[in-house]
Amino acid sequence: MTARPIPEPFENLHDRILDVVGEEGVVAEAGEMARYLAEERGRFVGKAAFVVRPANTREVAEVVKLCAEAGIGIVPQGGNTSMVGGSIPFEEGDEIVLSLERLNRIRALDADNFTMTVEAGVILQEVQQAAAAADRLFPLSLGAEGSCRIGGNISTNAGGVQVLRYGNTRELVLGLEVVLPDGRIWDGLRALRKDNTGYDLKQLFIGAEGSLGIVTAAVLKLYARPREIVTAFVAVPDPAAALALLSRLRGASGESVTSFEILPRLGLEFTLRHIEGCRDPLEAAHPWYVLVELFGGREDGGLRELLEEALAEALEGSLVLDATLAETEAKRRELWRLREAMSEAQKFEGGSIKHDVSVPVSSVPAFIAEAGALVTELIPGCRPVPFGHLGDGNIHFNVSQPLPEAGGDFAPGKAAYLARWDEMNRAVHDLVVRRFHGSISAEHGIGRMKLAENERFKSAVELDLLRTVKKALDPHGIMNRGKVV
């Protein structure tokens, strides 16, 4: 294909960057650039002068140095799976996108130290597989793991389904290599559990969404591979019962509960209706479900019996209405598919207004009830689908548009419904923060979408601290400008 003309102000920079990264390292044709400029939901579609794809840390540093000299903004990008527009440039076209996809080497794996050193462009699933091949576990697990890249996971402090036991990405990183906004390289690739020699600088870049520097490599923390995995799909009468069951299982299992996901019946119906190969795992319909998984260190170590006994006791006490345990790995994957496909299934039900929020675990039942009442008062007939990580208090409070009283079309119409996105977000976020002292972004970040909302809830002191850090590390504001801060 013939490359489109480079915008005149960028011609010299383009040529100098081309000298650094070579032909393979620059994408300038509009069709080839398209996948770097839009996010999956279609809410953000930006423009860029061109896309740069460095092959190593030195090339990243040289590109950043050239952009710093020219005062050109850089949008770092991993797998481009951001839910908040954090990896998408703005519409003016006066930035470049810097993709880390070619930095895809696993540099080292130290099984005895339980660490792995990887470059930022390695796909999360490949990190998991490399750990498993060494009889180790890298526990970060989320729906996009087949396409998201570890640098993006680090830069957004990704969460996922095993935070309850292993923590967010922040807890899984021991060291970082970062290209700073002036092109210098900070080598903080330390594989140490204890290093009390000053500020923990890596924490500045974890969750910063590329606004303070570009993560190019990381030392990741590994764990013993579980020998026993027990998974159950459990029907419960309401979220309060689910919470009580979580407390009971954590105590009975000695904190072996790895995942504890809550799903409403409506969300399950969406999945069964629209996702091929999914089937209802229980004979009767129930109002709420939890998907619970326990990891153990011994094969046939008694976790299954423990879970069966705990569920039987909960059944007698009316905390549980029904349950099924996965007998095989194939069955386990079927159960997890019901949870993982829930976001995808909502696309077929018209417009869906999303919220990625967290509240204290103990407040989840009250939040779900009050938020449901709030949005149905705001838009009568809308269909709340709250689901997600009850074990760590992170609920994806998605709300599908209303259905008409009769007929097959959605009402009031997808465009009209989605036009009220900001209005609903504002109402739900007010409830989350002011009533429950929660967070408006539990695991997706701030990016472009939540910038104004974030500033609405941060105190003047906190905003001043954030801006002071930003100015100190990126005084010319070239790193992912207009995001986070």
From TrEMBL:
Q: List each copy of the FAD-binding PCMH-type domain by range.
A: 44-225
> Do you know which Gene3D superfamilies this protein is assigned to?
3.30.465.10, 3.30.70.2190, 3.30.70.2740, Uridine Diphospho-n-acetylenolpyruvylglucosamine Reductase, domain 2 (3.30.43.10), Vanillyl-alcohol Oxidase, Chain A, domain 4 (1.10.45.10)
Query: Is Flavoprotein one of the keywords UniProt gives this record?
Result: yes
GO MF term (any one)? catalytic activity
User: Keyword annotations for this protein?
Assistant: FAD, Flavoprotein
Q: What is this protein called?
A: 4-phosphoerythronate dehydrogenase (FAD-dependent)
PANTHER family attached to this UniProt entry: BLL6224 PROTEIN, D-2-HYDROXYGLUTARATE DEHYDROGENASE, MITOCHONDRIAL
The GO annotation for biological process reads: respiratory electron transport chain
Q: Which family does the record assign? A: Belongs to the FAD-binding oxidoreductase/transferase type 4 family.
Q: Which superkingdom is the protein from?
A: Bacteria
What cofactor does this chain's UniProt record say it requires? FAD
Which organism does this record belong to? Tistlia consotensis USBA 355
